[in-house]
Each structure stands twice: as structure tokens, then as C-alpha cells.
Amino acid sequence: MTPNILSGNIRERPFAKRRAAADLFMPEAVMMQIAAHADLGLEEGKEVMGLLLGRIYADDDGEYAVVEEAVTSKLESDRVMVRFDREDMGALVDAIDNMSPDTDIVGWYHSHLGYGCFMSETDVKTQDGLFGGACGFALVVDPKIKEIAVFDSSPGSPGVAQMVILEEE
Ligand SMILES: [Zn+2]
Fold it and tell me: What's the gap in Å between 120 CA and the centre of ligand 1?
């Protein structure tokens, strides 16, 4: 279950020229946090997931997202599926409640255990449900074969998106 709270939440994007030709900008520390979460899941034989909070900007080439933090909650998962535990979404609700008004859910991440990074039918449904074609990204990480891929929110058939890791300044 993913909170379908984005419809109607589309507003004008602040204009800011992106620093590189990419769609998603990810702080190194957040990427490490996601990788560690995926590694922990791998040890337990479970997929993991979480949401990416940040900001969406626009420039002459369109919209792009800058991640600020990754948040997760209690999960129901096994080797081939993962979802938020709907009985216990407190951590997620708190994170969303505490979001500043400038912050959006800009994406979500989840792991695949050894079968590579792609968008399954369920993943595409989740992506469409979360973003409905508005700017948003799915990050898929496979901690077993050490692969990461990012997909855009093209409805029904997410395309591969480019991610840039931002080193700490
Ligand atoms: Zn998946």
C-alpha cells in the first residue's frame, strides 16, 4: 500500500537550472542509507522499500527532482514482494506530517533480491498510483548483484531515468 496523496498536489515548480543532465539528484548519504537498508534486507531474505522526500524543480529541459531524505516504515515483505505494513505506518505518517511545505514525495525505492533492476507489473502500478504521470521516480536496487536503476513516471511504461549522486559539500 502506498499513500495516494499526490493527486491534486501538483503546483508550479520553482525554476532552477540543474547542475548536470540528469533527472534525479541524490545526496551520497541518502544513497548510502538506502544501500544499507537493502543490504540488511538481503541478510534477512527480504525486499525493502521507502519513500524519497525532496523537491521538484523545473528548468528549460523540464522537471527534475532533488532528494533530501529517504524515509521508511514497518514493512511486510519476503523475497519477492514488499509493501508498507498498513497497520503500522506511524513512522511514514510522522515523516510526511513533518515535511516542510516545499517538500514533496519525489520518489520511492525498493529492492530486488538477485533478479536485477526492472519495473515489475506491480512496481508499475505502484509508480502510477503514486505519481499518476507527474514528476516522480522509482529507484530499484539489487544488493545481491550490486545494481541500481532509476525509472521515471511515464504512465504504464516507466522509462530509465538518469541519477546523479551528490557528494557531500
Ligand atoms: Zn520491484
Answer: 5
